[in-house]
Amino acid sequence: MALCESILAVLEEQSRKQSYSRVRAVCLEIGRLAGVELSALSFGFEVVMRGSLAEGAALEIVDVPGRAWCMKCAESVELSSRADACPNCGGYQLQVTDGTQMRIRELEVD
To answer: 93: which residues sit within 8 A by CB, 6+ positions away?
Structure first.
């Protein structure tokens, strides 16, 4: 719910700056390593947006794969979870490089 309330705050702030009165669709970019439960976010989005400029807005979620640099094999690898080992060498000396973000990618507004 807190994430959805933050999204609404951004939408309201931007509506004042950009002079729109209604949000029809929100596209979020969410990394697999961001720790966001997508079903809970979808439910919370609908609840929090009620009575706001984004009531009834469609929610689209773009999945961003997790990526990390493996220090052992010196390669960039894809991860599904922070607890994963390197799929190439099995090592755990990984530095996450992508997939932790959550950002508003696009808005459809009136």
So the answer is: 70, 71, 72, 86
